[in-house]
Amino acid sequence: MPKIRPISDLRNYSEVLRDVAAGEPVFLTKNGRGRFVIMDMADYENIRERLKLMEALSAGERSIAEEGLIPAGEVRTCVRNRVHADEG
User: Fold this and answer.
1) Average confidence (pLDDT) over 73-86
2) What is the H or E stretch that residue 33 is in?
3) Do 43 and 25 contact (CB within 8 A), yes or no?
4) Which of 33, 36, 76, 87 has its CA 20 to 30 A from that of 43?
């Protein structure tokens, strides 16, 4: 069950922070409506990394839709050519 507290509870912020745990954010309300979230830093970083991954996947899907795919054989040939060029 989510932990929901009024923002006025931040007057005693140490008590609010004790309620924050990994995977268990505290939701703060202002005038009875959700307004802020206090969460564990590791959870925040995890969400940011997932968002970056989702953005990269979305960009890849857009690229495929706009430019199409390159056949695997062409990719292998291109990689081989670059490797041989670097060796020479």
Assistant:
1) 91
2) strand 33-38
3) yes
4) 33
Show Cβ contacts of residue 22 under 8 Å, excluding neighbours closer than 6 positions.
40, 42, 43
What would the 3-class secondary structure string for 10-73 be?
Answer: HHHHHHHHHHCECCECEEEEECCEEEEEECCHHHHHHHHHHHHHHHHHHHHHHHHHHHCCCCHH
Could you tell me if 21 and 27 are in contact, meaning their C-beta atoms sit under 8 angstroms apart?
no
27 pLDDT exceeds 90? Answer: yes
Handedness of CA 63, 64, 65, 71 (dihedral sign): positive
What's the pLDDT score for residue 75?
92
Which helix (H) or strand (E) is 27 found in, with range?
strand 26-30
